[in-house]
Design goal:
Mean pLDDT: 92
Structural class: alpha+beta
Protein name: UbiH/UbiF family hydroxylase
Family: Belongs to the UbiH/COQ6 family.
CATH superfamily of the largest domain: FAD/NAD(P)-binding domain
Cofactor: FAD
Keywords: FAD, Flavoprotein, Monooxygenase, Oxidoreductase
Number of helices: 10
Strand content: 25-35%
Bound molecules: flavin-adenine dinucleotide
Number of domains: 2
CATH class of the largest domain: Alpha Beta
Order of helices and strands: EHEEHEEEEHEEEEHEEEEHHEEEEHHHH
Oligomer: single chain
Shape: globular
Helix content: 25-40%
Pathway: Cofactor biosynthesis; ubiquinone biosynthesis
Distance between the termini: 46 Å
Low-confidence stretches: none
Number of strands: 19
CATH architecture of the largest domain: 3-Layer(bba) Sandwich
Length: 386
């Protein structure tokens, strides 16, 4: 059986589902194909995969009707951020400096995913094919045809690859990538602390990587310790008490004693540049289009903006063919700079704080402290991050 669509989105992670939601009320016929059954809500348990969502993207998700579905007791706020270098450098950002309520909102992956999917299900006019996976694709002049593993065929004027860093669809389209593994993993885990975090996100640039403590509701924090593979393996293998001790000590016991509430998990880190974000009848969004080092917590934030910009281009195109290459190039032009800048900044910071000789260590720490003292530069950085 062949079904016809204007837009078929392959991948229903946070980014693909946000695009589907942004297109849901339009006359466009939209399908979303997701390979995995969505994870059930975690109930009382906390998800170790946490995102720092920027105010801009919180606003986007509010406009789309997803944010209002988040349980209030699972949302954490960042009002201040304290960054420490490995030789005494410090940098302090505050939402107050730029007249904002917060620098970011901390939310669990599964909670956010459930909210977006439930908003999507209520709209009812996006065809959700889940669990389903494509096994073949044909690129035609007028349409692309996606053949699913269960034998269904979808004919669509535009395919959107939102299927993550290893994107199957990007590979099928032959879009080249350059990928640099960081030879690091992001080790994530959640803890309860004996002292209140005060809504402060803390980050340490250490000799063995970058450690971030993000405030969750209550006296809880979520950590991301981006560190070389051997150290990551060591951390993941530690018994709970020893892991608590290692994390508390690495953060100078700023929040007192820690108690592990979700086991540690590790995610390999890599930098991915794609040769192009679009080709005829195809657009790439989210991790299918780029990956960045998580030290600035910006990966999914970039992806949400991809979804917003692509939706704006498609909705603004009236009756024009959504798979038209020249139309898709508008999306590419609008996103290139943002993505490249974030990749350059996060990659540069990672390189700068890798162990090096003493003069460089001094310089990078002096740079942090100097930035802290330069009000206009600091405010510019905060606005960029927001
Ligand atoms: C340790 C760590 C910490 C991070 N912290 C942050 C943070 O604080 N803030 C932030 O902004 N970002 C953060 N990121 C980045 C963030 O995790 C990613 O950018 C984000 O998950 C990308 O979302 P996505 O929807 O593009 O891709 P994914 O989350 O990878 O979703 C892809 C979806 O496609 C589906 N899929 C895959 N292949 C197929 C197929 N062939 N057919 C059908 N479906 C398919 C998958 O099942 C999945 O649901 C972090 C990353 C790491 C590693």
């Amino acid at each position: 059986m062949t079904q016809e669509f204007d837009i078929a989105i392959c991948g229903g992670g946070l980014v693909g589902a946000t695009l589907a939601l942004a297109l849901a009320d339009s006359p466009l016929r939209v399908a979303m194909i997701e390979g995995r059954q969505p994870a059930p809500p975690t109930g009382e348990a906390w998800d170790s995969r946490i995102y720092a969502v920027s105010p801009r993207n919180r606003h986007l998700l509010q406009q789309l009707g997803a944010w209002q579905r988040l349980p209030l007791d699972r949302i954490g706020n960042v009002q201040d951020m304290r960054v420490r270098g490995d030789a005494g450098g410090t940098l302090h950002f505050s939402a107050v400096d730029v007249g904002s309520d917060e620098l970011a909102t901390i939310i669990e992956n599964s909670t956010l995913q459930t909210a977006i999917w439930s908003a999507l299900a209520d709209r009812g006019n996006v065809s959700l094919l889940c669990p389903a996976r494509p096994q073949g694709v044909e690129w035609g002049q007028q349409a692309a045809t996606l053949i699913l593993e269960d034998g269904q065929t979808l004919k669509t004027r535009l395919l959107v690859a939102a299927d993550g860093a290893e994107s199957w669809l990007r590979q099928q389209a032959g879009i080249g990538i350059s990928q640099a593994p960081y030879e690091q993993q992001g080790v994530v885990a959640n803890f309860e602390c004996s002292r209140p975090h005060g809504f402060v996100a803390r980050q340490w640039f250490r000799q063995d990587g970058v450690l971030a403590w993000l405030p969750l509701p209550g006296n809880r924090i979520s950590i991301v310790w981006s560190t070389h593979d051997a150290k990551a393996a060591e951390l993941k293998a530690l018994p709970a008490d020893a892991l608590c001790e290692a994390v508390a000590a690495a953060g100078g016991r700023e929040l007192g004693e820690l108690r592990l509430i979700t086991p540690a998990a590790g995610f390999p880190l890599r930098l991915t540049h794609v040769k192009s974000l679009v080709s005829p009848r195809l657009a790439l969004i989210g991790d299918a289009a780029h990956t960045v080092h998580p030290l600035a917590g910006q990966g999914v934030n970039l992806g949400f903006q991809d979804a917003r910009v692509l939706a704006d281009v498609l909705l603004g195109a009236g009756r024009r063919d959504p798979g038209d290459y020249l139309l898709l190039r508008r999306y590419e032009r609008a996103r290139r700079e943002d993505v490249m800048m974030m990749q350059a900044v996060t990659h540069g910071l990672d390189r700068l704080f890798r162990p090096q000789q003493a003069p460089i260590a001094w310089l990078r720490n002096a740079g942090l402290t100097l930035t802290d003292k330069m009000g206009p530069l600091k405010r510019l950085l905060i606005r960029q991050a927001l």
